[in-house]
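Usage

Read records sequentially. Each one opens with the input sequence:
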Amino acid sequence: MKIKYLFIITGVVFFISGLIGLFLPPSQLAIYGIEVSSGALYMTQWEGLASLVIGILAFLFRNVNDLIAQKVMSFSMIIYLLGGLIISIMGTLNKQNNELGWVAAAFCLLLMIGYISFLFGKNKKAK
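and closes with the structure output:
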């Protein structure tokens, strides 16, 4: 898969998730079966803001043709997605959220595989 399409997929999914978390935090919490509290609402909005920014950055990066910049952004996405993977797995195993946590973990893992394959694959020029 071209890195451009990976950035587009990342951008769209995180942008939508970010909007939901930022403006509809009770809905975001309900999706994952998390009890609504003032602290959970507050932190969900912060998570929504972070996801929104990641989504915007990834989407804007779709047309960057500089190989070094693409690799730096890919490395950053791997770190972000690794954190998301760990949080999703721990939250699901500890019953802090419902089984949809596995879907979030799988999504993070799939995107990570894409970015890792780009980062460590044979890239002779920017795509």
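Summary fields computed downstream for this record:
- The chain has a mean pLDDT of 95.
- Residues 1 and 114 are 8 Å apart (CA to CA).
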